[in-house]
Amino acid sequence: DAGITQSPRYKITETGRQVTLMCHQTWSHSYMFWYRQDLGHGLRLIYYSAAADITDKGEVPDGYVVSRSKTENFPLTLESATRSQTSVYFCASSEKGGGANTDTQYFGPGTRLTVL
Amino acid sequence: AQSVAQPEDQVNVAEGNPLTVKCTYSVSGNPYLFWYVQYPNRGLQFLLKYITGDNLVKGSYGFEAEFNKSQTSFHLKKPSALVSDSALYFCAVRDLTGANNLFFGTGTRLTVIP
Hints:
The structure holds 2 protein chains of 2 kinds. Chain A is an all-beta fold. Chain A has strands spanning 4-7, 10-13, 19-25, 31-38, 42-51, 54-57, 64-66, 76-78, 87-94, 106-107, 111-115. Chain B is globular, with a radius of gyration of 14 Å.
């Protein structure tokens, strides 16, 4: 039961480079989310997806791009990384449909990204 | 807009004593409230949630939370703290505008002293 995985777990890159963070879930959850965690801010939503090919912006989307061609994958791309994007990134997923676990989000282990 | 506030950055409690981690919320409409815990270098783990019904919600690892509508609070509690409860705790409220995302508080670091 793999659940939700993220790769890489750690990444160091340079300003201006493109970086893609991967997220994969095995539950066939409809919803997937990307958050960033920064000291003093808690977690802030970057993008989310309600289903394959449906994505929408969250609170802090600037500088990020997402896609969701398959239900199980939700990659996050930093098109031109900046130092302000140094953070810990969490992917999450949740069910849809009114069952007991609806609304509960399940989180991956995170990716620690450092932009030099 | 929905939001939650965690007024304490840090809570220290002695092992065996009861613990409380505070959370207040601001929503228009009925709130969907959550507590998550984060251990070092780990993702967030779901503890419990309030959707409707009984104001006292029981969750994982012996934690419970009390929903208080008049005080707009959802404090996390445990009768007897363990050293292993030391972690970062987040309160969250679900977005009621259509997306399924959560708005998180800034977190409270709980330290249980042996």
